[in-house]
Amino acid sequence: MINLKQKLKKNQLSIGSWITIGDPIVAEIMSRHFDWLVIDMEHSAITLDKAQDLLRIIALQGCKPLVRLRENNSHIIKQVMDAGAHGIIVPMVNSMDDAMKAYNSVHYPPTGIRGVGLARAQDYGFGFEKYKQWLKREAIVIAQIEHINGVKHLPEILKTPIDGIIIGPYDLSASLGVPGDFENLYYKEALTRILNVAKDHKKPVGIHVIPPYAKDVASLDPQYKFVAFSLDTMFFGSKIRDELDGIKEL
C-alpha cells in the first residue's frame, strides 16, 4: 500500500478514482489498479454499513480507501473513520473554519475533537494504541474546493494542517453560474487562482477528471498531483457505448 500521506507531503503524483456503486466486486476490481479510491457517500446510495465493507475490500487490495462525505459533519466523520477510512474528502470547504472543523473531527484530543470509539479501525478495542499512532502519521484530510467562496478564501484554508485540496469542477462552475461549462473564462480564471495560491502555500492540488479517457488526464496542468480519474459508472457506461458504436460502424 502506498504512503499517500507522504506522496501528498512531497507533492508527488497519485491517481485514484471514485466509487458510486456499492458492490464489493466493483471495489475489488478498481482497487487493483488505482493508488486510492474514494467511496462517494454524497452523491450515491452507499450507506455506512456498505461503506465499511468497501473500505475493508479496498484496503485488502493494497489501495488507500477514502470517503467523500455528504457534509462537513463531525459525527459522520467519526463514523467513517471508525469504520476504517484512511482519510476523508470534505465537500464545500469555503473557509478556514470549515477546514479546521474537518481536520479536528478526524483527530483525537488534544489535537482535535473526535470522540473515542472501539470499532473496526481500532481493531475492535485490541489495537487502540496502535491506531492512535497511525492516526497521527497517516490519516488524510482533503478539502474539496467547489465554490467560488472557497476560491476566495483559499489562502486561509491552506494555512490549516489539511493534507491538500481537490477541485470539484461541476459545482465550482455551477457556483459561477455556468454549470459544466469548463471553457468559460471565469471558470478558467478560478482554476488559475487555485493553482497559484496552492503553489504559494506549497500544498498539493487535485482535480476530478470526469471523462474516462487518458487524454483528459494527460492534458492536465502538471501541478495537479492528486488526480481522481473518472468514476465507476463512467468507465462502465462509456466502454459499452464506445464498443457498440464501433460495432455499428462495422
In short:
This protein has twelve helices and eight strands.
What does this structure look like?
- The structure is a single chain.
- The protein has helices at residues 4-9, 24-31, 48-60, 74-82, 96-106, 128-138, 148-152, 154-157, 169-175, 185-201, 214-218, 232-249, and strands at residues 14-19, 36-40, 64-68, 87-90, 140-145, 164-167, 205-209, 224-231.
- It has one domain (4-249): Phosphoenolpyruvate-binding domains (TIM Barrel, Alpha-Beta Barrel).
- An 8-stranded parallel barrel has the order 1-2-3-4-5-6-7-8, surrounded by 6 helices.
- It is built from 12 helices and 8 strands.
- Helix 2 runs parallel beside helix 3 and helix 4 (74-82) runs parallel beside helix 5.
- The mean pLDDT is 97.
- By secondary structure, the protein is of the alpha/beta class.
Question: What attributes characterize this protein structure?
Answer:
alpha/beta, TIM Barrel, 250 residues
The number of distinct helices, counting runs of at least 4 residues, comes to 12
Widest sheet, order of strands: 1-2-3-4-5-6-7-8
Q: What is the share of helical residues?
A: 40-55%
Overall geometric form: globular
Break the fold down into its secondary structure elements and pairings.
Elements: H1 4-9, E1 14-19, H2 24-31, E2 36-40, H3 48-60, E3 64-68, H4 74-82, E4 87-90, H5 96-106, H6 128-138, E5 140-145, H7 148-152, H8 154-157, E6 164-167, H9 169-175, H10 185-201, E7 205-209, H11 214-218, E8 224-231, H12 232-249
Parallel strand pairs: 1-2, 1-8, 2-3, 3-4, 4-5, 5-6, 6-7, 7-8
